[in-house]
Design a protein that fits this description.
270 residues, alpha/beta, Rossmann fold, five-stranded antiparallel β-sheet, 8 helices, globular
Length: 270
């Protein structure tokens, strides 16, 4: 039975969690594609899927199809899920131009039902950092588990938090990106951040300077997940860890690795 103090604390945590967000311009498809032009993760997924003889794949938080489309071009039967309809619109347009059949769905990773199961479900490129609470994480993993076929795989790809970097750069503003979008906008992004130790949320602000003028300051709040912490969530939600890499070249995960790239396998629960 919860005390009044515990109820108040829980209510305050829920209210604060509702204040965490990701800004609209960050989800602008052209801005997103201009900022994210790397391909190392695509090579990893393509190689891993081929080596494991995987045919049927669901990408959760697929964005504009940056990963899904190249995988489909490699012959993989791809399905994509994303919360943001504008990103999905861009993904559908790009898939049509690439002449690849991808089944895209709008939905929340914390609660979705596609009525199908897949040999592999993956959440790429740090998207899991947008899960802010315990309930967000467990609900997401439950939804994903329901979509993984028996013996199938679940892969997560996310930052290995560097506390010294976070502490050293709190409160300061630094330029982190400068690029031109496909529709001709010159974008500069300046970042500042403040870390909440109790919630493990890094409250990031991005100032977007468009064509030389300040456009907006938007939130990119990210929950930090420490190595043993998410390992526990994975195991308690019906998966076993088959492999853990520290980068896209599949080097073993160590303390200084930039990435936590975890290959999980679905196990049966009693």
């Amino acid at each position: 039975m919860k005390t009044n103090a515990q109820n108040t604390k829980s209510d305050n945590q829920e209210k604060r969690a509702e204040s965490y967000s990701v800004g609209k311009l960050i989800y602008d498809p052209k801005v997103y594609d201009g900022l994210n032009r790397h391909t190392e993760d695509i090579s990893f997924y393509r190689t891993w899927i081929k080596d494991q003889h995987i045919c049927k794949v669901l990408e959760v938080c697929c964005g504009t199809g940056r990963i899904a489309i190249p995988l489909a071009q490699s012959g993989v039967e791809m399905t994509g899920l994303d919360l943001n309809e504008s990103m999905l619109g861009e993904a559908r347009s790009k898939a049509e131009k690439a002449n690849v059949p991808i089944d895209f769905h709008q939905g929340d990773m914390r609660r979705f039902s596609l009525g199908k199961q897949y040999q592999l479900v993956f959440i790429p490129f740090n998207s899991i950092h947008c899960l802010y609470t315990h309930e967000d994480i467990t609900n997401t993993f439950a939804s994903i588990r329901a979509h993984v076929a028996d013996g199938g795989y679940f892969i997560i790809d996310y930052f290995n938090p560097d506390i010294s970097y976070i502490v050293e750069n709190q409160g300061s503003s630094m330029e982190i990106a400068n690029f031109v979008t496909d529709d001709g906008r010159d974008i500069c992004i300046k970042q500042s951040m403040h870390y909440e130790r109790d919630s493990q949320i890094n409250r990031i602000k991005w100032e977007h300077i468009v064509n030389g003028r300040s456009h907006s300051v938007e939130s990119l709040d990210m929950r930090m997940f420490y190595p043993q912490e998410l390992d526990y969530y994975i195991k308690s939600c019906g998966f076993t860890i088959a492999a853990k890499y520290g980068d896209y070249q599949m080097n073993p995960f160590i303390s200084g690795s930039p990435t936590q790239l975890i290959v999980c396998r679905k196990i049966h629960k009693d």
